[in-house]
Amino acid sequence: METPNVPDVMELVFREGLLPRVEPISYYVNRETLLPTGDGKMMRWRKRLFALLSRNSQTATNYFGLSAGQVVELGVQVEL
C-alpha cells in the first residue's frame, strides 16, 4: 500500500521545473467532526460508534506527511 508524501511530490515538481519554487507552502485540509446528536434515522449506538471511529481515524496532516506548522485546518460539525 502506498502512502502519499505531498512534500516529496512538491519537491519533485519544483526540481523538474513544472512550477516555480515558492516558500513557504501552506496546505489547507478539511476536518469533519461528527456529532451523534442529530435527528437522522441511524440508531443511537451506531451514531456513537461511527463518531468514535471518525475521531480515532488518522488525520489528513499525518496521512499526507505534512508538517503541522504548514497546515491550515478548516472544519465543520456534522450531526448524524
Helix-strand string: HEHHE
| pLDDT averaged over residues | 91
Strand order of the largest sheet: 1-2
Q: Structural class, judged by helices and strands?
A: alpha+beta
Poorly predicted spans: none
Task: Assign a percent range to the helix content.
Answer: 25-40%
Alpha carbon gyration radius: 17 Å
Beta-strand residue fraction: 15-25%
User: What is the number of helices?
Assistant: 3
Topology, number of strands:
2
Estimate the global geometry from the Cα principal axes: elongated
End-to-end distance, in Å?
A: 31 Å
Structure notes:
The chain is α+β, with helices and mostly antiparallel strands. The protein has one domain. 34% of the residues lie in helices and 22% in strands. The chain has helices spanning 6-15, 44-56, 60-63, and strands at 27-35, 71-79. A two-stranded parallel sheet has the order 1-2. The two termini are 31 Å apart.
List the main descriptive attributes of the protein structure presented here.
80 residues; two-stranded parallel sheet
Brief digest:
This protein is an alpha+beta fold and 80 residues long. The chain has helices at 6-15, 44-56, 60-63, and strands at residues 27-35, 71-79.
How are the elements arranged and paired?
Blueprint: H1 6-15, E1 27-35, H2 44-56, H3 60-63, E2 71-79
Parallel strand pairs: 1-2
